[in-house]
Write a structure and sequence with these properties.
With 318 residues, the protein is α/β, with parallel strands linked by helices. Strand 4, helix 4 and strand 5 form a beta-alpha-beta unit. The chain has eight helices and 13 strands. Helix 7 packs parallel to helix 8.
Length: 318
């Protein structure tokens, strides 16, 4: 692939015991108890954990005013002693502050940024402006039901080792049967479908030459997925994709058997919209809004193989 389709990723140094990491809240406010347990987990790896100044602020449904949330992000980006930035929570609000990120600081001193869901806006903006490889991973709000031992270990390895990450298709996932056979290699991009749709026309980076990872949690129903995918197709945002990796699309089991939907479920709408793109599609990856989330590098080279049911991604750290 040419340089335009395979741009050089900006990767961060891997973390080592003694490194400082900072927890910030770009979206909604977390609970103090959950953050305290997240701090305990990170400390157990030998890391020194700090909290952004406004992590527990609240302004409406967001963790403080826009200027305060982006202040915490930029302060972490600019501090040479901070070696990773971890989101405390998703929800709503990250899309309001991405235009004010200090990406020059990250270009000079790259550090991994961790989060998912609404934090997808942050991942897309950082890739678009400075090609930073980041991590689609769990929030710093550890509890036993959300982040079990396997999930915690996956995050530790993604931050502190340079091992590639491999995810395997889970036949029990709702998207497992959405498959277009083939293999594909490209830079892995994506995250939450709603966030990607929201960035269309407002800073969504080119997806040419990429593998697009998509996950979603049900809001109003099948129509929201149809609208989002159709907008991406009509806007030509999906032109030049190499392949699609589908994670969890949760909450759509209630649509099964609804006569108003003509027998369609989430797998039908995904296949209907994506099969016509003419690229391999691998469904069934256990990644998204479910419990025990894996950590997936974004902005590095990835390969999907529908025969083996695997997504393999190079590390975001060096």
């Amino acid at each position: 692939m040419d340089d335009y389709q395979n741009p050089q990723s900006l990767r961060s140094p891997r973390l080592r015991p003694g490194d400082r990491v900072r927890i910030v809240a770009p979206a909604c406010p977390p609970s103090r108890e959950e953050v305290a347990r997240g701090v305990e987990l990170l400390n157990s790896w030998g890391l020194e954990v700090e909290l952004g100044e406004h992590v527990f602020d609240q302004w409406g449904y967001m963790a403080g005013r826009d200027e305060d949330r982006v202040f915490d992000l930029n302060a972490a980006f600019c501090d040479p002693g901070v070696r990773a930035v971890i989101a405390a929570m998703g929800g709503k609000g990250t899309y309001r502050i991405v235009d004010d990120l200090d990406t020059d600081a990250l270009r000079r001193d790259p550090k991994p940024v961790v989060g998912f869901s609404d934090i997808t806006h942050l991942h897309l903006a950082l890739w678009s402006r400075c090609r930073l490889a980041s991590l689609h991973g769990p929030f710093a709000k550890c509890n036993d039901s959300y982040t079990g031992p396997a999930s915690a270990e996956a995050l530790r390895r993604a931050l502190m080792t340079t091992d590639p990450v491999t995810l395997h298709r889970d036949p029990s996932e709702a998207t497992a049967e959405v498959t277009v056979d083939g293999t594909a290699t490209g830079i892995l991009m994506g995250g939450n479908l709603s966030a990607i749709r929201t960035e269309t026309g407002a800073g969504l980076p080119s997806l040419q030459g990429t593998i697009l990872f998509l996950e979603h949690q049900r809001g109003t129903g099948l129509g929201e997925v149809d609208r989002a995918l159709t907008q991406l197709i009509r806007s030509r945002a999906l032109d030049g994709l190499r392949g699609i990796a589908l994670g969890q699309f949760l909450g759509f089991d209630r649509d099964a058997g609804d006569p108003a939907l003509g027998g369609w479920g989430i797998r039908d709408i995904l296949h209907d919209r994506l099969a016509g793109l003419g690229v391999p599609v691998l469904g069934g990856l256990p990644a998204g809004h479910g419990t025990n989330p894996p950590t997936i590098p974004l902005g590095t080279q990835a390969t999907i193989d529908t025969a083996t049911g695997t997504l393999t991604v190079l590390p975001a750290v060096v």
